[in-house]
Design a protein that fits this description.
Largest sheet: 4 strands, mixed
Strand content: 5-15%
CATH architecture: 3-Layer(aba) Sandwich
Strand order of the largest sheet: 2-1-3-4
Number of helices: 9
Number of strands: 4
Helix content: 40-55%
CATH class: Alpha Beta
Number of domains: 1
Low-confidence stretches: none
Shape: globular
Order of helices and strands: EHHEHHHHHHEEH
Mean pLDDT: 97
CATH topology: Glutaredoxin
CATH superfamily: Glutaredoxin
Length: about 200
């Protein structure tokens, strides 16, 4: 059975635009997934990337066009300039880590719910009430927002190191246990084809 390490930022619009397609693909192929939220700005610094606000105007303009086109293509609402972006991604990331450890809910729904809160619902995912609501809606104990903060911080840092070692450099980034890597929500079809043995 294949395994996928999923590296992402809870602030990434492109991770939001992935929807729950990763989970659908994994279920179709019987693959398991480990969710590895990380500090995307630190990842950029370690792997030659540039934060969006510091990119050349041409790159910023292209990103803006993509954030206009892709939501319409994928049928997902998105505010390209959300009220609470950027914000502190640590609380939501720690909640994802705690939920994965605790089990009992739907991880795909949790991750997508956090991303949707930022990019479509104008909610601040650094706020405890928002994180608790996302946990509860995905079938997890909302108290996970308050527990495991130390271990969450340690895992959050470890995820960054794992990403660098695995060759990940953006969000979303999918690494299969056979070494194949897929960067971006627009490569999910390729991930699907790879798991099916067609790529």
């Amino acid at each position: 059975m294949a395994h996928i390490d999923y590296y992402f930022s809870t602030l990434s619009p492109f991770a939001y635009l992935a929807g729950t397609r990763l989970e659908e693909i994994a279920a179709h192929h019987g693959a398991s997934v480990t969710y590895k939220p990380l500090d995307i700005i630190a990842l950029f610094a370690r792997t030659g990337g540039t934060p969006p606000a510091e990119r050349h105007p041409a790159r910023q303009a292209y990103r803006a066009q993509e954030l206009d086109r892709l939501p319409r293509k994928l049928g997902l609402p998105l505010n390209p300039q959300p009220a609470h972006w950027p914000t502190n991604p640590a609380p939501s990331s720690y909640a994802v880590i705690a939920a994965q450890g605790a089990g009992g809910g739907d991880m795909g729904a949790l991750v997508h719910g956090i991303l949707r809160a930022c990019w479509a619902e104008e909610r601040d995912i650094a706020e405890d009430a928002v994180v608790r609501d996302c946990l509860e809606r995905a079938g997890f104990d909302p108290g996970l927002a308050d527990s495991g903060l130390l271990s969450g911080a340690e895992t959050y840092s470890a995820n960054l190191e794992d990403a660098v070692e695995a060759g990940a450099f953006g969000s979303p980034f999918y690494v299969v246990d056979d070494g194949q890597k897929f960067w971006g929500q627009d490569r999910l079809d390729d991930l699907d084809a790879h798991l099916a043995g067609r790529l």
